[in-house]
Amino acid sequence: MSKVIVIGGGPAGMISAIEAAKNNEVMLIEKNKELGKKLKITGGGRCNLTNMRDIDDFLKKIIKNPKFLYSSLYTFTNLDLLEFFKNRGVEFKIEEDFKVYPQKDSSDIIINTLHDELDRVGVKVIYEKTLIDIVVENEEIKGVILDENHIIKADKVIIATGGHSYPKTGSDGKIHNILKKHGESITKIYPALVPLVFREDWIKNLQGISLKNIKISAKYFKNKKIDMYGDILFAHFGLTGPVILNLSSYINKYLQDGDIELNFDFIPNVTKDEVRKVIRKNNNKSIYNNLKEILPVNFTKHLLEYLNIDKKPNNLTKEEENKIVDSIKELKLRCKETKSINEAIVTSGGISVKSINSSTMESKVIRNLYYAGEVIDIEGLTGGYNLQIAFSTGYLAGISV
Ligand SMILES: Cc1cc2nc3c(=O)[nH]c(=O)nc-3n(C[C@H](O)[C@H](O)[C@H](O)COP(=O)(O)OP(=O)(O)OC[C@H]3O[C@@H](n4cnc5c(N)ncnc54)[C@H](O)[C@@H]3O)c2cc1C
């Protein structure tokens, strides 16, 4: 029996410890007082555990290094993940866009199930201890160093310490500098799935307004173009909501070279001519009241204020009508930056996939050292993909040690 140490009690660390314990003596070290602090807040506390797309479609939602994920995702699929929990009494439901949530709408049931399983298979969990370094001799891991320079010897180590985002949950990304020191290559870190900040100050007035199924188009690097559809929410700093978060993962690294212009069509299913007709539908009503049938009043009210148009439809000039229509169908806003990594749902960047064997998750640089989860340079869009990445890579690392 080998002595295995798993660092990090998130989904990747917990599942890898559970699997590793089938053939090894396993110790799981977590710096917090509890396991799964980030897992707890996933999906607004409801935990969007995975996505039911078939694996080929699933991989299209992995926007960084999808090929690296082939082995782990096929070894432990979304169906396998659900089976793991269903066998332990958890029930699930599938919501829009194939997103899977626990029937009870709570991440607690996921954390408790993993906890019980860790106990059942005999994993020793150590809380409130932080890994500060690893012991490497002749390119082979020999153990870990915890705070207060406490050294624990190990035959094999799995690092599942997460990314840099939401550092209050424990995953602060400090591990990347530690690993760099030992020769691992770490790719550049960016916030991903993160709200966007805009130059136009006036959109602050729209704070609190949400719009459904809008279209955003962007040209963000040389000839790279993207069209995305989804829901947005105006905030005091700019914009958030599912489509904004997903878009941020494409444009984040290009924002350092300057602003990126985004083109908003707030009602993609209504043509410009139809908007014109709606504006002039009833001459006795205000324009925003006429527009009520296709857009929320509070949105158009602020838009008209910004355009400085305060008239009845019959007094509207053609030029003013064009201005309104263009602002609804092709409003251009300049994105200047993303919010910080502290507010990002995931981290873009991490341990380079080039230095990890994707069939075992073992480091190619340090023997008997394995990686799992968000600490690696892989990322998915919103929809349950990132938790599945954590569970699949964690499972593969666990059965490989
Ligand atoms: C607000 C929010 C909502 C999200 N919602 C979803 C969702 O619904 N669906 C989805 O798929 N994804 C979601 N995600 C992303 C998902 O939570 C992460 O991708 C996932 O938790 C990564 O798992 P992990 O095990 O790799 O890392 P983590 O969950 O970050 O766990 C890492 C653990 O390691 C511990 N640790 C770190 N450093 C050390 C150290 N030096 N020593 C000891 N322990 C250490 C940390 O305390 C932490 O407990 C969400 C993220 C956020 C922030």
Compile the SSE list and pairings.
Elements lengths: L1 E6 L3 H10 L3 E7 L6 H5 L8 E2 L3 H6 L1 E3 L5 H6 L2 H9 L5 E3 L4 E4 L5 H13 L3 E4 L3 E7 L2 E7 L3 E4 L2 E4 L15 H7 L8 E3 L3 E3 L11 E12 L2 E11 L3 E3 L1 H10 L8 E6 L6 H8 L7 H5 L5 H11 L10 H12 L1 E8 L7 E3 L20 E3 L7 E2 L4 H16 L1
Please describe what this structure looks like.
- The chain has 401 residues and is of the alpha+beta class.
- It has two domains: 244 residues, FAD/NAD(P)-binding domain, CATH 3.50.50.60; 143 residues, no CATH class.
- It has 13 helices and 21 strands.
- The protein has a six-stranded antiparallel beta barrel. Strands 7-2-1-11-20 form a five-stranded parallel β-sheet, covered by helices on one side. A three-stranded antiparallel β-sheet has the order 3-6-5.
- Helix 1 runs parallel beside helix 6, helix 1 packs parallel to helix 13 and helix 9 crosses helix 12.
- The radius of gyration is 24 Å and the shape is elongated.
- It starts with a strand and ends with a helix.
- 43% of the residues are buried.
- Bound molecules: flavin-adenine dinucleotide.
- Flavin-adenine dinucleotide binds next to helix 1, strand 2, helix 2 and helix 13.
